Amino acid sequence: MSFLSIFRKSNSVSVIQLNGVISPNMGRRKGLNLQELEKSIEQAFTGSNIKAVALQINSPGGSPVQSEMIALRIRELSEKKNIPVLAFVEDVAASGGYWLACAADEIFASKASIIGSIGVVSSGFGFNKAIEKLGIDRRLYTSGDNKAILDPFLPENKDDIKRLKNIQKELHLQFIGFVKSRRGDKIKDENKEVFTGAFWSGESGIELGLIDAFGEMKKVLKTRFITMSKITEKFEDYFAKKMGSKYAVMTNSGSSANLLALSCLTHPFNKEKLSSKDEVIIPAICWSTSLWPIIQNNLKPVFVDVELETFNIDIKSIEKKITKKTKAIMLVHVLGTSANMTKLLKIAKKYKLDLIEDTCESLGAKYNNKKLGTIGRFGTYSFYYSHQITSGEGGMIAVSYTHLTLPTTPYV
């Protein structure tokens, strides 16, 4: 597959590390806060060819204010630059740590990760009985009736506790609101426990909709975003064997596969390259993405009528269109059908024409027990969502034989 490697291009994924307690800077003690992270977040979304931003999270939580500020800043840049965000939980994303995870479009975790704790907690100690036993007098002077509420050296006051509970409830609702706005219908809370402050393992978290999938960051990113990863190469090998081709190389679309096929034929290092204004026969019914690669390579398209029964190229009309400048046929297999390939191959052999099969609509279809796309020099396929199989986007170019002589280093 190296003869097509010059067309490959790598993608970039930025990583933001969110490890530790979420808190504002207090003297020498530094935590996760927007002040410390602002520059890193900005840089993560800056640069060419950034395909995604990954959040590497290992946090038990902390300040709700800093949690919100960090999450909102991440969302702002994600939406502004149209860059998806993925969160990867390591040991824990609890409380504010889960708030940060919800800034992502998808959340991944280990089965043993600790997830959730959507709640608010305040804790402390009461020392009023201790100082009484020790004979210590508490001297406190305030201006304002409520200035000394929740003082640990004074007995608890019901009004103070009520005030604290109201604040906790407000913060809790804010937390719940953000989680619901980000997770939506993914949350499955049949037992009404998700928003009680409880926490779960990743294994239970996926059942509740708190996370989307299990996965380690590097493996997921390589599989999803790094062009021509090992998973892609396995798919290429499998596809070539399944189709019966010698080579198969994945592209970002069937359109690009068509462009790649024509570009190989016109490449300067191809000893038998097509020249400017050479003619390529193409059926009158075709896709723009079958036609434009011809024009982009400075070749001349020559249209041939189609058969009314199949909408495939009319074999009887081809020879009438062939001239000394004719060098190739761009064939389009329409909706799982094909032209008479036996007669077409005879014509191609007679006039020494390269045959390119646009098989984007006909993956898996056969002619005389040979799969379409493997009969000519190049076969192109599409994995667009409306075709026979899909990878969301994507395409493939298959080559059964080649004597192209291309360099081993990229040509620009």
List the main descriptive attributes of the protein structure presented here.
alpha/beta; Aspartate Aminotransferase, domain 2; seven-stranded mixed β-sheet; 16 strands; 20% strand; elongated; disordered N terminus; disordered C terminus
> How many runs of DSSP E, i.e. beta strands?
16
Given helix and strand content, the structural type is: alpha/beta
How many alpha or pi helices?
Answer: 12
Mean pLDDT: 87
Q: Give me the strand/helix succession.
A: EHEHEHEEHHEHEHHEHEHEHEHEEEEE
Assign the CATH architecture of the largest domain.
Answer: Alpha-Beta Complex
Number of domains: 2
Q: In the CATH scheme, what's the topology name of the largest domain?
A: 2-enoyl-CoA Hydratase, Chain A, domain 1
What are the low-pLDDT stretches, counting only 5+ consecutive residues below 50? 1-9, 403-412
End-to-end distance: 19 Å
Percentage of residues in DSSP E strands: 15-25%
CATH domain class of the largest domain: Alpha Beta
The CATH superfamily of the largest domain is identified as 2-enoyl-CoA Hydratase, Chain A, domain 1
Q: What proportion of the residues is helical, as a percent range?
A: 25-40%
Main β-sheet: number of strands, strand sense, barrel status? 7 strands, mixed
Estimate the global geometry from the Cα principal axes: elongated
Gyration radius over CA = 32 Å
Could you please describe the fold and organization of this structure?
By secondary structure, this protein is α/β, with parallel strands linked by helices. The chain has 2 domains: 183 residues, 2-enoyl-CoA Hydratase, Chain A, domain 1; 172 residues, Type I PLP-dependent aspartate aminotransferase-like (Major domain) (Aspartate Aminotransferase, domain 2). Helices cover 33% and strands 20% of the residues. The protein is built from 12 helices and 16 strands. The strands form 3 sheets. Strands 1, 2, 3, 4, 5, 6 and 7 form a 7-stranded mixed beta sheet that branches. Strands 8-16-15-12-11-9-10 form a 7-stranded mixed beta sheet, sandwiched between helices. α10 links the parallel β9 and β10. The longest helix has 26 residues. The chain is elongated. The two termini are 19 Å apart. The N terminus and C terminus are likely disordered.
